[in-house]
Amino acid sequence: MRILLTGAAGFVGRAVRAELLAAGHDVVALDALLPSAHGSAPDVPPEVADGLHVADLADTDAVTRLLTGVDAVCHQAAMVGLGTGFDDAVDYVTHNAVATTSLLTAMARTGVRCLVQASSMVVYGPGRHRCVTHGRVTPPPRTAEDIAAGRYEPLCPACAAPTSWERVDESAPTDPRNVYAATKLAQEHLAIAWAEQTRGVAASLRYHNIYGPHLPRDTPYAGVASIFRSALARGEAPRVLEDGGQMRDFVHVADVARANRAALEALGGSAQRSGHRCWNVASGEPHTVGELATTLSRAVGGPAPVVVGGGRAGDVRHVVADAGRITADLGVAPRIRFAEGMAGFATDPLR
To answer: b/e string for 251-289 if b means 16 or more Cβ within 10 A?
Structure first.
């Protein structure tokens, strides 16, 4: 297939491009080189720089030209992370929701009818929780007062008892609780509308916490794996928020790339089908944030993590994936286990 790959110079896009090329696909690489993702002086990977088209997705004419002869689009371009507050809300909406709308408009005009796009676990909000008395419940957002007082665990909205987490599958209700999450869910809804109106086929891949080579260094938009690696590279102890008991699923970028290829190959050959699908992309192996910090520190012989309490606005306590659907539907399963992946990540180059 000939595939237009947006965000091709980014962390995930770089891995997806390599995976697609290795599988024999023709990749048209596009990236806006946003400063929030690439810095003010972008250092484009040399293997991507040759033939990279630099354009904003809002430039519908440019995107339309690049779609000529394309069979499918792999949409990785986005502004990611929780950000620094509501002040950057317009940027998130512009680079995620509006940019996706422009891309889908160009696809509708050119007759490209296959889309695989990056979504995120953040669309699930607090994830799934269970109360001993009231069964499955949706905890209310944690308040700043709760975090300051060290009350980290989500409580039952009916009786205020502590809840236990459950794995989140794709049937879980969406409940975005920050601007980034809202824009990722908007991308999914836009893909649903596009597929309905064009008889196209689309998939949204709900990534859980991705790590691996060339992860961006510490920024206000970085994930926790990058933040810990950056601290250790400076010889500093990783600072673990809350009590370190936050449960997450850490998935290697190589497994994310394989999931994208599998989705593109499955959907690209589905001329008789249309509609939208969503799949979790995760390892299926839950670990705490504290365990992540300890594992990385030990791997490099660095200082032990320091638990500092507090928390970031918009963070949720536990989100752990059920990764079974994508394996059942596409036959793709994660290959890189936590111990192996983190041993490599501890010394992987960062971007």
So the answer is: bbbbbbbbbbbbbbbbbbeeeeeeebbbbbbbbbbbbbb
Structure token digits, residue 250: 């850490």
User: Is pLDDT at 18 greater than 90 in this prediction?
Assistant: yes
Q: How far apart are CA 125 and CA 177, in angstroms?
A: 6
CA 177 to the chain's CA centroid: 15
**What's the mean pLDDT in 287-306?**
96
Which range, 177-186, 188-197, 208-217, has the best average confidence (pLDDT)?
A: 188-197
**Is residue 40 predicted with pLDDT exceeding 60?**
no
C-alpha–C-alpha distance, residues 235 and 215, integer Å: 18
| Helix, coil or strand: residue 56 | coil
Helices (H), 23-160: 35-38, 46-49, 60-66, 89-92, 99-110, 144-148
CB contact at 8 A, 103 and 28: no
CB count in 10 Å sphere of residue 165: 19
Look up residue 278 and give its two tokens.
């969503």
Q: How far apart are CA 350 and CA 339, in angstroms?
A: 19
Q: Identify the DSSP state of 162.
A: B
Sign of the alpha-carbon torsion through 75, 76, 81, 86: negative
Closest CA to 326 of 170, 189, 113: 170
Determine what percent of the chain is predicted with pLDDT higher than 70: 94
Helix segments in 287-337, DSSP class H: 289-300, 324-330
Dist CA 100 CA 36 (whole Å): 18
The answer to whether 296 and 232 are in contact (CB under 8 A) is yes
pLDDT reported for residue 271 = 55
Burial degree of 40 (CB within 10 A; 0-12, 13-18, 19+):
exposed
Token representation of residue 311: 């928390």
